[in-house]
Amino acid sequence: MPNSQTLKALLKETMAQCDHLARRDHDPVGRVWEYERDEDREVAALVASSLAYGQVKVLREAIVRALSPLGPHPAHTLRVAPLEDLATRWPAFTYRMTRGEDLADLAVALGTTLRREGSLSELYRRGLPETDGLSARERHLHAASNFVQTLRQRRARQELSRGFRYLLPDPADGSTCKRLHLFFRWMSRGPDGIDLGLWPSLSPDALVMPLDTHTGRLCRYLGLLTRKTLDARAAIEVSERLASLDAQDPLKYDFALCHLGIGRRCIHRRSDEHCPGCPIEAACTL
């Protein structure tokens, strides 16, 4: 495993080689930036991040289909449309594990929240514990779980379905919750053209790495992850390792690392075509 200074330099080079704004058109967050109002971006971000699984081109198309029934200003639509009407707007939607009924659950939950708390940010803020002695990340995880549990309780259907649980995972359940942590990264960091920086109550130093199979492999190649099981503890391990490189903004490296895979610069096997010139090759143990 490279020492911290070497690894930090390599990750800095990875960021430098990543054309962030160009790559935004190949990332789910690009769909969020298409909205001009912050309140619409906040709503679009939760929808987009919740669907951020599978092949990027296909999921970006799914995000458009998911948001289109809410019109050009989804926050306004969610705030004023009858909840029973919101529950009927995705009759034929399907995207892998997600069905129209799951989006209806989410829409009703979002509409209820915008009417009661005014914003998703306020719902999150109210879940932050006052207890002394907790770290910033522990407070964030507590608020994140409360955020999810409250939205789940405000769903359209009586029963909590497997599809809606998958769409909106709870950090307390022990999984990586990659898509939820991606949403929080978008809300906390920035604005920098990628992350939107909409939530002042969520500091970047509290964030958890949005870890999935692909980023998990990259983190193992770099010695950022030793845990074999890809779960919540693995995501925390990577977050803490990155915090040792930048305590104030550990997830600043996430987008560039993720796009090594999305952009097919890393194919997770040694290749004379792909490996030479890769910014992390000097530290890669693949």
TrEMBL record:
Signal peptide from the UniProt entry: none
Q: Which Gene Ontology terms describe the biological processes this protein takes part in?
A: DNA repair
The UniProt entry, under SUPFAM superfamilies, shows: DNA-glycosylase
User: Where does the sequence pass through the membrane?
Assistant: none
Any one GO MF annotation of this record: catalytic activity
Pfam families recorded for this chain? Answer: DUF2400 (PF09674)
User: Which InterPro entries does the entry mention?
Assistant: CHP02757, DNA_glycosylase, HhH_base_excis_C
What superkingdom does the record give?
A: Bacteria
Listed NCBIfam families: TIGR02757 family protein
What is the protein's name according to its record? TIGR02757 family protein
